[in-house]
Amino acid sequence: MLTHPQFDPIALSIGPLSVRWYGLMYLIAFVLFVVLGRLHARRRPELGWNAQMIDDLLMYGVLGVIIGGRLGEVLFFQPGYYLQHPGEVLAIWKGGMSFHGGFLGVLAAMWLYGRRHGKGFWQVTDFIAPLVPTGLAAGRIGNFINGELWGRPVATDLPWSMIFPWVDALPRHPSQLYQAMGEGLLLFAILWWYSASPRPLRAVSAVFLIGYGSLRFAAEFFRTPDPGIFGTLALGLSTAQWLCVPMIIIGAGLLLRSRR
Predict the structure, then answer these.
(1) How far apart are CA 260 and CA 243, in angstroms?
(2) For the segment 136-148, what is each residue's pLDDT rounded down to a tens digit?
(3) Name one GO molecular function term (predicted).
(4) Which end of the chain, N or C, is less surrounded by CB atoms within 10 Å?
C-alpha cells in the first residue's frame, strides 16, 4: 500500500513568478502536440500538412481546450460550487478541466480553423486525433500531482493502492494513473499505429471516439465520480460515463460510414 506524496503544487518559483505543476503539464501537452504533429506530417506527406499549419492548429486548439474544458467543468460537473465561488471560474491553475467540455471546445475550434484555411472538418480531426492522447496523459499526471480526482476504495488488497490522506485513510485506486495509461498512452499507441496508413475519411476520428469513450467509461468504475449536475445517474453510472455513451455510438456510426 502506498501513500500519495502530497506534492507541492508549485513546481518552480523565480522571484514573484510561480510555475504550477498543472500548468507545466499543459505546456508539455502542447509541446508534444507540435512535435508529434510534425512527425505525423512527415510520415504522411500526402495529407498536406506543414509546420506552420500545425503551429496554427495549436493556437486554435489551446483556446478550445481552455475555454471548453473550463466551461464543461463549471456547467457539467460543479455548477453549484462555482455559483457560490464565481471568482474561481477563471482559476484554471488550481485544476478542474472537463475533458468532455474541452473536447467540444476543440471541435468548435477545429471547425473554425478548417473554415479559415480551406480544410474539411474531418480532414482536420483525422489529422489531430493521434496527437491528442499524449496530452490527455499529461493532464492526468497533473491531476495526480494536484491530488484531485482520486479513485474509489479498493475492494481487495492491491500493492499499488494508495491512501490520499486529505480524503480519508482508505486505500484507493490511483485512478489518475490508470487514465494516464489507458486513455493516454494506450490510446496513443492504437491511434498512432492506425493513422500510419491511409484510411477512409472520418475513420481515424471514429477510432478516437470509440477508443476514448470505451477507455474512459471503464476507468470511471475505479474513480470517485465527479458530482455532475445529476450526480450518479441511471444504472448507477456516473455523469462522465453517460457522456461517453454518445461518443461511442457516434464513433461507431462514423466508422461504418467511412467504410462505405
Answers:
(1) 27
(2) 999 999 999 989 8
(3) phosphatidylglycerol-prolipoprotein diacylglyceryl transferase activity
(4) C
